[in-house]
Design brief:
The chain has 835 residues and is mainly β. Helices cover 6% and strands 57% of the residues. The longest helix has 12 residues.
Length: 835
C-alpha cells in the first residue's frame, strides 16, 4: 500500500505545475520536523495539515538541495514512518497505517480414549459444521478468521459422541468415553453412541467397531475377520481364509495393513485364527475402492488396521482359552507415557480331528455320485504368532512406537486309501507359511496443529509347499501316476515413507507425502530333485503424492489428488489421479462419488493346469511377460442415517488390466504366460437398526466378475473364478447384560466350481449356507473381569465347499477330485479373563 501511495505522489509531483516549481535548499541541525515543515509552508505558499505534537517528536538534521518543496517534504517524513496525501490543494501528513493481519483462531488437538489416553485414529470431528480429517494419532487442526469459539462434534466407533463448544486453543485433548469399559456397560445420559459400523460417510469406505467382534459367534478370540466377513462387498462364501476378496478383486490384489506393515494371508484353515492378533486392534478401516492418493501399490481393496498403543498407567492382561487356541496379551507400563505390549497365540493341541474335515474323493468318469468315497483324515496343524509393541507419547501429541511381528503356520495331511478294487491313492501334502514384519513410527504434531508422520516398515512371507503323490496298482506293483513337487516362494517388502497434513485455511487441508518401496521375490521349484525354476527379482520405486481436502461450504467436500511413482526396475513413471466428492444433501442423506487409477508393481499370478487346478505364486512385474497391473475404480454411493437407523447403497465398476496366468495344457499344445483383464461391477446394500442396547443388520451384494485371457478360444469375456452373483448376510446381537446372544447367517450363490480351462464350461455353482450362534456370560465384574461363552458354527451342518483346498488329480483314464469340506457343525467353548 505504501508503494502505491508513493507512486501516486510521484505522479502528482511530476505534474506540469510541480515541474515548474523552484529548487529548495534546507539546512537544519537537530530541529523538530514540525518547525521545518512550517518554514517550507510559509516560504513556498503551501497548505499543510499534520499533527504538530506528533511531528515535534522527530529531530532532523539536513543540508541538502531538493528539486521542489514537495520532494523535500516527502523525503523528510519518510524515515519517520509518515506518509502524505493531497486532498485538493492541501497536503495531509499522517502516521502510516499498518495493515493489520487478520487474526486467525486455531483449534488443534488430539482425540483420545477418556479411560486410558489411547489416541483414537481416523476419528470423525466436525468443527463449525465442517468435517475435518484426522490422522493415525487422532490429531486435527482448524483455522478460523471469524470467531474464537467453536462448535465441535467428535465421534469414534464404539464411543459416546461429544457435542460441545470450545475456545481457540492448541494441544487440546478431546476425550471420548467408550460405551463399554472392560466388560461393563457404561451409560452416559443424553449421549449417543456410534454403533458397530460407519458406512456411507465417504465413497467405498467402511469403519468397523472391533469391540463388536467378540460378541459374534466364533472362538471367543475377538476375531476381527468374523466381523469383516459379515460386511457387504467382502466375500464370505467358500471361507477364503488366506486372502480377502473385495469387490471382485483377485488373489493378491488386496492388502491388509497392520500398524503400517503388510500382513499376508496364512493358511488359517476353516477360519480358526485371524492372520493378526485381534486383541491388539484399535481401529479398522475397509477401503473397498475409490480410495484417495495416500494409498497405493494395490488395485483391489485395503483393510487398514491400527493397533493399540497400550496403557502407560497400569498393568493389564487378557487371557483367552478355547478348545482350539490360547491367546494372551500383556500391557506393561514402563515409565511416564510409555508402555510395552506382548501378545502371543498358539494352538496347544492338534487343531483338527477326523470329524472336523472330510476329504471327498470323487471319480469323475461318470456323473454317478454313488461312486464317491469319503475319507476321514487327521491333518496336523500348528499355528503360533508373537507381537511385541513399545509405545511412548512425547510432549502434547507426539507418538512413537515400534512393533515386531512373527508368525508360523503349518498344515499337512496324508491320504492312504483305496480307489477301487485295484488302485490305491498315496498322497502327502505340506504347506508352511512363515511371516515376519515390523514398523518403527514417529508422529509429530507441530505447534500450529499440523502433523507429520514418519515410518519405516518391513514384511516378509516365506511360503513352502511340498506334494508327494502316487496312484498305484498294488497287485502288479505298478504306478499309474506319480508327482513329487517342491516349491518355495519368498516375498519381502521394505518401505520408508512420510505423511503430512497441513491446514491451510478453514476450507483447505493439504495432505502430501513421499516414500521409497523395495520388493524382492524369490521362487524355487523342483520335481524329483530336478530344478525347474530358480529366480530372484527386485522392484524398487519411489512415490510422491499430494491432495487437497476442500470444504466447499458446509455441505460439500471435494478431494482431488495425484500419486506419482517412479519404478526404477522398469525405468518408467506412473501417474495415478484420484478424485472424490461427498455432498450432505440433507441432515440424513449423503451422496458420495469417486474415481481413480491404481497400479500394482508385484502380483500374485495364478498357475493353472488343464484340469483346472489353481495355485498362486508371487512375481515381480517386469512389463515384458508380466505387465504392471492397472485398474480404474468408479464408485457411486448414497446413505440415509437417522439416530438408530442406517441405510446405504453403493455401486461400483472396476476394470483391471495386466493380470497374468501361467498355463500348461499339453492336450491343447499350449504352454505360456497368458495376460488378461477383468471387469467387476455390482452393488452393495446395507441396512442396520439399533434398538436400546441391541443391534441388527442385513447386507446384500449383487456382483459380476468376468475375465478375458488371450488363450480363450471363444475370444470373449467369461466368468472369473471369483465370480459370485449373490451374497446375503444377516446378523443379530442382543444385549441383556450380563447375558449376550448373537447369531449370523451367510448365503452365497456360489463360484464356478469347474471353470473351463480353454473354453467356457457352464458349470454348476455350489451354494454356500452357514448359520452360527453364540451365547456369552460376563462375570467377575470387578477389577478382574471374566467372560465365558459357547458358539456353535454351522448350526444346520450344511455341507459347503472350501475352494482354496480343491484339487483334481488325473489318472490314466479319468480324474479324481479332492476337496476339503468347509467348517462343519462345530461347537466351541471359551473362557476369558482380563485385568
Amino acid at each position: 500500500m505504501i508503494l502505491s501511495r508513493n507512486f501516486i505522489l510521484f505522479l502528482l509531483f511530476i505534474s506540469p505545475a510541480i515541474l515548474q516549481a523552484q529548487e529548495i535548499h534546507l539546512n537544519y541541525s537537530n530541529t523538530s520536523l514540525n518547525k521545518i515543515l512550517i518554514d517550507i509552508r510559509d516560504s513556498n505558499d503551501l497548505h499543510l495539515s499534520f499533527d504538530d505534537k506528533l511531528l515535534s517528536k522527530y529531530k532532523v538534521t539536513v543540508d541538502k538541495t531538493f528539486p521542489s518543496p514537495e520532494t523535500a517534504i516527502l523525503q523528510l517524513i519518510r524515515p519517520h514512518g509518515l506518509t502524505v496525501e493531497k486532498d485538493k490543494d492541501v497536503f495531509v501528513i499522517y502516521k502510516n497505517r499498518k495493515q493489520k493481519r487478520k487474526k486467525q483462531f486455531l483449534l488443534a488437538g488430539q482425540i483420545k480414549d477418556a479411560t486410558n489416553g489411547e489416541p483414537l485414529p481416523y476419528s470423525y470431528i466436525i468443527i463449525n459444521d465442517k468435517t475435518i480429517p484426522t490422522d493415525v494419532k487422532g490429531s486435527f487442526s482448524y483455522l478460523s478468521e471469524t470467531d474464537s469459539i467453536f462448535t465441535v462434534k467428535a465421534s469414534h466407533l464404539g464411543y459416546y459422541i461429544l457435542d460441545t463448544t470450545m475456545n481457540a486453543v492448541s494441544g487440546l485433548d478431546v476425550l471420548l468415553y467408550p460405551s463399554s469399559i472392560g466388560l461393563s456397560e457404561v451409560v452416559i445420559k443424553n449421549k449417543k453412541i456410534e454403533r458397530s459400523t460407519q458406512i456411507g460417510d465417504k465413497p467405498g469406505l467402511m469403519k468397523l467397531n472391533h469391540k463388536v467382534a467378540h460378541f459374534l459367534p466364533g472362538y471367543g478370540d475377538n476375531s476381527v475377520f468374523n466381523l469383516l466377513r459379515l460386511m457387504p462387498g467382502i466375500v464370505a462364501s467358500g471361507e477364503q481364509t488366506n486372502d480377502l476378496l473385495i469387490w471382485g478383486s483377485y488373489a493378491g490384489q488386496s492388502q491388509v495393513l497392520f500398524d503400517g506393515f503388510t500382513i499376508y494371508g496364512l493358511k488359517n484353515f476353516n477360519d480358526n485364527i485371524s492372520a493378526f492378533n485381534p486383541l491388539l486392534a484399535k481401529d479398522i478401516e475397509i477401503l473397498k475402492g475409490g480410495y484417495d492418493a495416500r494409498f497405493g501399490e494395490k488395485v483391489g481393496g485395503i483393510v487398514n488396521i491400527t493397533g493399540k498403543t497400550g496403557n502407560p498407567e497400569k498393568f493389564g492382561f487378557t487371557i483367552n482359552v478355547n478348545n482350539m487356541t490360547l491367546n494372551t496379551l500383556f500391557e506393561i507400563p514402563l515409565f511416564k507415557k510409555a508402555s510395552l505390549q506382548i501378545a502371543f497365540r498358539h494352538t496347544y493341541y492338534n487343531l483338527y480331528n477326523p470329524d472336523d474335515m472330510n476329504f471327498l474323493i470323487r471319480q469323475n468318469n461318470d456323473a454317478d455320485t454313488t461312486n464317491d468315497i469319503d475319507v476321514n483324515i487327521v491333518p496336523d496343524y500348528v499355528f503360533r504368532d508373537l507381537n511385541i509393541k513399545y509405545s511412548q507419547q512425547f510432549g502434547e501429541n507426539d507418538l512413537f512406537y515400534i512393533i515386531l511381528y512373527g508368525a508360523n503356520d503349518k498344515f499337512q495331511y496324508t491320504i492312504d486309501d483305496s480307489l477301487g478294487p485295484y488302485r490305491r491313492l498315496y498322497k502327502s501334502a505340506t504347506e508352511l507359511n512363515t511371516q515376519s514384519g515390523g514398523t518403527a513410527f514417529y508422529g509429530k504434531t507441530w505447534r500450529n496443529g499440523n502433523t507429520s508422520n514418519f515410518d519405516i516398515s518391513y514384511s516378509k512371507l516365506d511360503a513352502q509347499y511340498t506334494d508327494d503323490l502316487q496312484i498305484r496298482f498294488p497287485v502288479i506293483d505298478s504306478v499309474d501316476r506319480r508327482v513329487d513337487k517342491r516349491s518355495q516362494n519368498v516375498l519381502t517388502e521394505f518401505k520408508i515413507k512420510a505423511d503430512n497434513r497441513f491446514s491451510l485455511s478453514r476450507s483447505h487441508t493439504l495432505e502430501w507425502g513421499a516414500g521409497i518401496i523395495s520388493n524382492t521375490v524369490t521362487l524355487v521349484e523342483d520335481t524329483f530333485a530336478v530344478s525347474l525354476v530358480n529366480i530372484s527379482e527386485n522392484a524398487s520405486r519411489y512415490f510422491i503424492y499430494a491432495q487437497d481436502y476442500m470444504a466447499l461450504g458446509n455441505k460439500t467436500v471435494l478431494k482431488a489428488g495425484l500419486r506419482y511413482t517412479h519404478a526404477f526396475n522398469l525405468q518408467k513413471v506412473y501417474f495415478e489421479p484420484r478424485i472424490s466428492l461427498s455432498v450432505q444433501a440433507t441432515q440424513a442423506i449423503k451422496i458420495n462419488a469417486a474415481w481413480g487409477i491404481y497400479n500394482q508393481y508385484f502380483t500374485q499370478s495364478s498357475v493353472v493346469d488343464e484340469l483346472g487346478n489353481y495355485r498362486y505364486i508371487w512375481t515381480i512385474c517386469n512389463n515384458e511377460d508380466i505387465p504392471v497391473l492397472q485398474a480404474q475404480h468408479y464408485v457411486l454411493s448414497g446413505s440415509f442415517q437417522k439416530e438408530h437407523f442406517v441405510f446405504s447403497l453403493e455401486g461400483y465398476y472396476k476394470f483391471t488390466e495386466g493380470i497374468t496366468r501361467y498355463i500348461n495344457f499339453p492336450k491343447y499344445h499350449i504352454e505360456a504366460i497368458a495376460t488378461g483383464k477383468s471387469r467387476s461391477y455390482g452393488m452393495d446394500v446395507f441396512l442396520q437398526g439399533n434398538f436400546k442396547n441391541h443391534s441388527a443388520w442385513i447386507s446384500y451384494s449383487l456382483s459380476k466378475t468376468e475375465e478375458f485371457f488371450n488363450y480363450f478360444i471363444e475370444r470373449d469375456y467369461r466368468r472369473s473364478p471369483y465370480d459370485q452373483r449373490h451374497e446375503v448376510k444377516v446378523a443379530l446381537l442382543l444385549n441383556f447384560d450380563p447375558f449376550y446372544f448373537s447369531t449370523n447367517y451367510v448365503f452365497g450363490s456360489g463360484f464356478p466350481f469347474k471353470p473351463g480351462v480353454v473354453q467356457s464350461d457352464p458349470s454348476e455353482d455350489f451354494t454356500y449356507s452357514r448359520l452360527d450362534a453364540s451365547f456369552i456370560y460376563k462375570f467377575l465384574d470387578r477389577k478382574l473381569k471374566g467372560e465365558a461363552g459357547i458358539s456353535v458354527l454351522n448350526v444346520l451342518n450344511r455341507q459347503n465347499i472350501k475352494y482354496t483346498n480343491f484339487e483334481r488329480i488325473p489318472t490314466s483314464n479319468n480324474s479324481i477330485s479332492i476337496y476339503a469340506e468347509a467348517i462343519p457343525f462345530t461347537p466351541t467353548l471359551y473362557l476369558k479373563f482380563a485385568l
